[in-house]
Design brief:
single chain, 142 residues, alpha+beta, Alpha-D-Glucose-1,6-Bisphosphate, Chain A, domain 4, 7-stranded antiparallel beta sheet, 30% helix, 44% strand
Amino acid sequence: MNTWKKIFTKTYVGVKKEALWQIATDINRWPEWHGDLDSCKLEGAFAVGNYFMLKPKGMRAVKIILTEITEGHSFTDCTTFFGARMYDTHAMEETAEGLRITNTLVVTGPLKWLWIKLVAQHIADTIEEETEALVSLARQQS
């Protein structure tokens, strides 16, 4: 199946993986470092199969399901739209140069072109800014 994919990766020094993981997986705190969110509420534990309701500013809330978690390293969430699915993988890896953070956004489905235009491209365009805010928060807590 033809997919649309955008990858952002950058290596940061002076940030602890544990601190970053703790903040990134505390979904209820996402509005602290996602400037475009009104709210984010995880239903239940941070576990595969559970979901959270994410409400972007000026839009209705969407249900996002946690589809894959590798503790301390990465997690993937999936948003289902009419005619498309969007997967967002958040990963971190300790390297000799620092902590490498990678965000991979993938959209699939027959109406992916519509959801890329309405949602995914904006997310791709703001990933770097939000990652910088996340890293800044993690550095403060380290």
